[in-house]
Amino acid sequence: MSSTTPHVACARCGAVNRLPAERLADDPNCGRCHQPLLDGTPVELDDHSFDAFVRQTTLPVLVDFWAPWCGPCRQMAPQFEAAARQLKGRAVLVKVNSDAAPQTSARFGIRSIPTLVRLQGGLEQRRQSGALPAAQIVALAR
Ligand SMILES: [Zn+2]
Known about the structure:
- By secondary structure, the protein is α/β, with parallel strands linked by helices.
- The chain has helices spanning 50-56, 71-86, 102-107, 134-141; strands spanning 7-9, 16-18, 43-45, 61-66, 92-97, 115-120, 123-129.
- The strands form two sheets. Strands 3-5-4-6-7 form a five-stranded mixed β-sheet, with helices on both faces. A two-stranded antiparallel ribbon has the order 1-2.
- Helix 2 packs across helix 4 (134-141).
- It is globular and about 35 Å long.
- The model has no long low-confidence stretch (mean pLDDT 95).
- Bound molecules: zinc ion.
- The site of zinc ion has 8 residues, from loops.
């Protein structure tokens, strides 16, 4: 298997799936639990699942640090979902509830929400705080 073959972690069972690039847009399922891997909806991660998922996924990962009590976060949620649909097969959009994932939020030094962090191979490449429209979310994830 080529090292350039994209890897996508399964948020449900943790299995790492190697996917040929031509299959990424083809609604691939997890090889272990057979649930959709890249169905164009945001993936929800917490302190237990975050590290393994972002380190093992080689596609760009855009994380939305948010909280249920945050008005701008709730306003941005449909924009984030629209961006996830547009980026299906090209990037993985992740939601982290900062109340439910305090360790992950602290490690990234999240001081205001919503904050979007773009990772690749677990490494932060850029971030942006404040609610964004879908087009800007897509641009940040690319
Ligand atoms: Zn799975």
